[in-house]
Amino acid sequence: MLRLAVTGATGFLGWHVRVLLRALGWPEPVVVTRADLADPELVAAKIDGVERVVHLAGVNRGDPAEVAVGNIQLATQLAEGLKHCGRPPGSLVFANSVQAGNGTPYGDAKATAAGILAETGVPFDDVLLPNLYGEHGRPFYNSAVATFCRLLAEGGRPEVHADRDLSLVHVTDAAARLIGVPAGGSWDPGMPALRIGVQALADRLVQLAATYQMGKIPSLVGRHDVRLFNTYRSHCFPAHYPMVLPRSADVRGELVETVKVHGGGGQTFCSTTRPGVTRGEHFHLAKVERFVVLRGSAEIGLRRVGDTEVLRFAVSGDEPVLVDMPTMWVHNLVNTGSEDLVTMFWTNELFDPERPDTWPEPVAAA
Fold first, then answer.
1. Global pTM?
2. Which of 52, 62, 68, 220 could crosslink 109 through cysteines, CB 3.0-4.6 Å?
3. Is the CATH code 3.40.50.300 the one for domain 4-204?
């Protein structure tokens, strides 16, 4: 369990690094902001005695000259802070890019930044990251995956103007590599990549979205199938929920179609919950989990990890709906009625007590 300092902690990759640290139960990282980096003495005081500094801060988009200058400046400022540090960190990890040194302003600036950091004398790990995708990526900025998912979630359709091959890595795997943890049930620091063309990616997401818009679960047979689905769902939440379930009735009673899966494994289970009792109070990094209240009334509470705002959905067995828990959102289920609550749950994988992908945390932020 290491004590880390992180630059760029509020960005896409930075948020996922902090979520993974939270799941692992590691200490909250020391956050070094861009304003901090302008003061080498302040940087030195913040990183004094930490085991590892993870440098994520960078400039990825904008005017080419500003991109080049920004990435070099950030590395120079961090290096200056390291020089003033009385107890230097045990290691320095740089979130570099596979584009480093490719002749573009961005690529050459990243290569220069790596050289500056390597000269600090701190043991240096230069991690060349490919295209990253994952939950809550910023569309038109972080990746084509984020852009396509947002367009589809808003009822549009992605357009591909130039097809090319991509190598995509899920951001949690990149976070695991950067902070230095062994493989787990929800991450792989080996950063397994999905190699796919832009047009094929768009087609895949279009099909996934079309299936899910009807409340059905698309085929989730591979690692990246699950993660692309979770990424798409992050752009649907919360506007698309709860989803109304198909329901039919005749003289015999009623039938509600709760889960339809196009491919892949899964586990279904039911629970009863006493009045006033709360279930859940945890989050998942990759697991897909569906809640459907079949009898009684309940409130589903959700909070994005690291945020304080809690979203609440009132649900009832009188009008069954589905709410799929977004990954990296803490969630719970409270029986708000006077009788036992009956709830059906579905997950895309069998529960494995050795790798449960269930990380305790209360919905009510401390």
1. 0.95
2. 68
3. no
